[in-house]
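Hi, here's the filled form for the chain we discussed.

Project: internal
Contact: R.S.
Residues: 86
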Amino acid sequence: MIRVRIRQGQVELLDPIPEDWEGQTLQIVELTPDEPMPDIEEALAALKALGPTEYEPGEREMIAQAAAERKRLSLVPVPDNTDREP
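And the returned structure, exactly as it came back:
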């Protein structure tokens, strides 16, 4: 994940961009308080009602590998910005 700040209509990068992103096009998606968000308690109750998760043979390992790959791809050095103004 790359953090950015929008200031006076310009995108200001707060984190370095990984070299393998070179030449790619990115889309910034606006998040607003007006977007509908499901009630978390309702969503958790629906998940609990489904019962325990059951895995097919090899599925746990596949999920663990996919999660490890997502983590590897998302790791970006985050500088200490405590001395920066927002």
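Let me know if anything looks off before we file it.
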